[in-house]
């Protein structure tokens, strides 16, 4: 069974601590299809529960809570233990993180202040009695879930992926049925510039009444910041936003003072575009059709030294003859496609083998990987041969390669 869990679930299971909740009696109410759920419940560490398809006649006085399940779902062995512990700690509604997809590769993390209309939630007995009264005797599980989310006073989110839905994530999993919605997209969730700036937007959007969802490829460090920003009370969020603005202003002032005597970041922004550089002698060129394909970081550092630090823009010739291969924010742009067609360079990597005067600028440690890629995709005899070097800011001498077929 352990091998059938998602990577996130296996990682969390290895760190979970067992809690004795056997004195808490639970019902699992799943009136619809529940074959996968029934199988998963056989492995629960919390054993004091019953799976029922109707509530009438099942709500004995010793029932402390009911897990409402509106669709078939798999759960890990500690699921009921965590739900029972949440009830014992005073929660009247408890939801949890979940994984989605056949292999569970998509993870949904919830914040305490954002509990959407989940298709699976633990409800305390007291709240369930109120909800059933409001539902006027109808025990529709979807209606009970909707009313539970609306009437809960002490909802909580369990920060564990206890559930696995073998389907793709949909809007209903992350947004409630009504309300203002905001979606934040980030190409990464690391402790770098863009994600850190985006965390500041979360409390502002939340204070304006938006439900906020952050979509990113993986948790690489900044996810807890997003969850904390979404969970903070409104007064704390506003103070946090003011403090962030003040801190940013102080950092900008320090940057201005530190760089007042040299061309650096602030002065680059002021002077960029005032003049074009005379860069005809920067790189050796066989002719006007010579093209250098750079990895994006090397090209950024090279242009920083030769252009930005001098407050200048590259010449048209340099832009045409030096391209960043695979750069995500340019490769799909129409102007870039037109430039490639004009240079007879529709497939830049293949042109390393087929187009004369086409070179690759990349650090030595990356060259073997690119050579293997050329061999696998174009010709098994392709090799990269170093022709010369170019000095790249912070990197030093960086090789220039030419692809040949042996």
Describe this structure in words.
The chain is of the alpha/beta class and 406 residues long. It is built from 15 helices and 17 strands. Strands 1, 2, 3, 4, 5, 6, 7 and 8 form an eight-stranded mixed β-sheet that branches. The protein has a five-stranded mixed β-sheet with strand order 14-13-15-17-16. Strand 16 and strand 17 form a beta hairpin. Helix 7 runs parallel beside helix 8. The longest helix is centred in the middle third of the chain and has 25 residues. The protein is elongated, with a radius of gyration of 29 Å. About 7% of the residues have low confidence.
List keywords for this structure.
alpha/beta, 15 helices, 37% helix, single chain, 406 residues, 5-stranded mixed β-sheet
Instruction: Output the number of helix runs.
Output: 15
| Structural category | alpha/beta
By DSSP, the count of extended strands is: 17
Poorly predicted spans: 234-244, 259-276
Which SSEs are present, and which pair or pack?
Layout: H1 7-13, E1 25-29, H2 35-41, E2 49-52, E3 63-69, E4 74-75, H3 79-88, E5 93-100, E6 106-108, E7 120-124, H4 125-134, H5 141-151, E8 155-165, H6 171-174, E9 180-185, E10 189-190, H7 193-207, E11 210-215, E12 219-220, H8 223-231, H9 234-258, H10 265-271, E13 291-294, H11 296-306, H12 316-321, E14 322-324, H13 334-342, H14 348-354, E15 358-361, H15 367-377, E16 382-392, E17 396-405
Parallel strand pairs: 1-2, 1-3, 5-8, 9-11, 10-12, 13-14, 13-15
Antiparallel strand pairs: 3-7, 4-8, 5-6, 5-7, 15-17, 16-17
Helix pairs in contact: 4-5, 7-8, 7-9
Structure described in brief:
It is built from 15 helices and 17 strands. With about 400 residues, the chain is α/β, with parallel strands linked by helices.
């Amino acid at each position: 069974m352990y091998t059938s869990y998602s990577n996130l679930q296996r990682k969390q299971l290895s760190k979970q601590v067992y809690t004795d909740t056997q004195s808490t009696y639970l019902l699992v109410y799943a009136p619809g299809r529940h074959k996968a759920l029934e199988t998963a419940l056989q492995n629960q560490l919390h054993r004091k529960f019953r799976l029922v398809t109707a509530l009438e006649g099942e709500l004995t006085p010793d029932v402390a809570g009911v897990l409402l399940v509106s669709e078939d779902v798999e759960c890990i062995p500690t699921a009921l233990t965590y739900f029972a512990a949440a009830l014992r700690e005073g929660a009247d509604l408890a939801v949890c993180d979940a994984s989605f997809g056949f292999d569970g590769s998509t993870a949904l993390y919830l914040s305490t202040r954002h509990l959407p209309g989940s298709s699976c939630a633990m409800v305390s007995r007291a709240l369930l009695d109120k909800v059933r009264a409001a539902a006027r005797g109808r025990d529709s599980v979807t209606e009970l879930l909707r009313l539970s989310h609306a009437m809960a006073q002490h909802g909580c989110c369990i920060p564990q992926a206890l559930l696995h839905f073998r389907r793709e994530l949909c809007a209903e999993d992350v947004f409630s049925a009504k309300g203002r919605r905001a979606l934040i997209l980030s190409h990464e969730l690391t402790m770098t510039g863009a994600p850190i700036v985006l965390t500041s937007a979360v409390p502002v959007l939340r204070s304006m009444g938006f439900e906020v969802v952050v979509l990113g490829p993986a948790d690489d460090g900044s996810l807890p910041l997003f969850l904390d920003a979404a969970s903070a009370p409104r007064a704390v969020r506003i103070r946090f936003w003011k403090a962030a603005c003040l801190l940013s202003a102080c950092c900008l002032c320090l940057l201005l003072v530190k760089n007042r005597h040299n061309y650096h970041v602030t002065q680059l922004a002021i002077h960029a575009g005032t003049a074009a550089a005379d860069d005809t002698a920067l790189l050796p060129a066989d002719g006007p059709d010579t093209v250098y394909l750079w990895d994006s970081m090397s090209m950024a550092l090279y242009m920083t030294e030769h252009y930005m630090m001098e407050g200048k823009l590259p010449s048209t010739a340099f832009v045409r003859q030096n391209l960043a291969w695979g750069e995500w924010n340019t490769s799909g742009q129409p102007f870039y496609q037109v430039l490639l067609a004009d240079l007879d360079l529709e497939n830049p990597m293949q042109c390393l083998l087929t187009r004369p005067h086409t070179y690759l600028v990349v650090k030595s440690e990356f060259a073997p990987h690119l050579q293997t890629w050329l061999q696998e995709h174009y010709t098994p005899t392709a090799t990269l041969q170093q022709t010369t070097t170019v000095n790249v800011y912070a990197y030093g001498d960086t090789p220039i390669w030419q692809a040949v077929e042996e």
